[in-house]
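Below is our example:
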Amino acid sequence: RAAATPLRTLREGSPRRRGLLWVIVLVIIALLATGAGWFFGMGPGSPGTIPRVSNKTVAEAQQLLRTAGFQSTTKDVFDDDISAGLVVGSEPDAGKEVRKFQVVSLFVSKGPELFPLPALTGKSLSDAKGALNGAQMALGPVTETFDDAAAAGTVLDQDPAGGTPAKRGTPVSLTVSKGPEPIAVPDVRGQEQDAAVRTLEAAGLKAVIAPDTVNDKKVPKGAVAAQSPSSGTLTKGAPVTLTVSKGPKLVDVPSFIGKQANDARRSLEKLGFEVRVNNILGGFFGTVRDQEPVDTKVPEGSVVTLTVV
């Protein structure tokens, strides 16, 4: 059986048409190459250097970037050194060379991040230092002052106050107690009781009168014979005990008339008297002829006069 024969054959393509297709392809390639060259050479894909924008306002930084061919966005950040509203820096960093189609991020300062200061009043100085270190704050000047109520080493005040918003490393000044102020104890021995009390109270001390009075041959009745303490220092309101004199004690004066003067002198002096001798005719016999006072009570330490013949 004979093979089937096609009714017509395919025609070969026209040389003119093939040439036109090649022209179109070459034009497209040329356009793409030109566009790529412009994009990477002078357009958004061309390289550019990020300008320095730190410490600029946002408007100034954005203008510098636009002039350099970059678009930008902003992001707020805390910064301890750059004032709020100014640009801290950029991403990519200043000086880097990147393609201009890359968007540059501007970091804008919100100022320093603030944290509440710890409350230190009433703490010991050691605990206050620990609290400041824990809060990453600094210890400022420490002033010491006397305080009648707070123990030595206790924080009386702080500046800035506790709870005040502050950046890390802020110095906090402290006023610290030295405890009650010491008061020198005045010596009021020999003063009348009322005067002694006034002297102690004027010094900030409390006068306490001892219940028992004492005899004292040198301190008159009603005056202070002793005090405790009598020297040193105390704190405000501390007590000072006063012992009041009832004067010298009364002592019987026995009669030594007719006795030897030397024996009389020794006995009277042993009783606490001061003895004076008045010799008549030289006191040849050494006998007491007269005595003043005699057979009575007189204050201890009184003078007894003996007349000796």
